[in-house]
Amino acid sequence: MGRCQAPIHPTRRSNTQKPAGPIRLFYAYSHKDEALRDELEEHLALLKRQGYIVGWHDRRIGAGEEWKGQLDKNLEESQIILLLISPSFLASDYCYDIETKRALDRHDKGEATVIPVPLRPVDWVGAPFFRLQGLPIDLRPVTTWTNKDEAFKNIAQGIRRAIEGMRDGIR
Asked: Which parts of the chain are beta strand (E)?
């Protein structure tokens, strides 16, 4: 992509206080990428066990619950929003027009940190989130790595650094 990978240490101060408990993490993704989201979630399991994060995605919506209300609530309450980028994500009106717009609004207000994560190769130059530093290193899509576990490890390490920055009061 030609952009340098800077360490994920956000520099703007958040409008919110330092998080005391686990960071709420929201996965914005296309259902066509569910298997890759599951793999990423598995790689973030240690962060969850250590009390750093509590992750949420729409597959956690229970029977009988109103799905849009649950999505909106969890998107609003999350401090880190992962945009799992793929051709399917960019093609989804809901992912691109609704979740992405609200995520970026919250990011710009200092209420959340949005991290783009390219899962599969796609041209996303000019997308509204292209201005944000993402993961993994060099923004190389996860599926293009010889070993996807290495890509997911790099993403997990970057998320850990972002959380440490948040806990230090930096956004």
From this structure: 23-28, 53-56, 80-85, 113-118
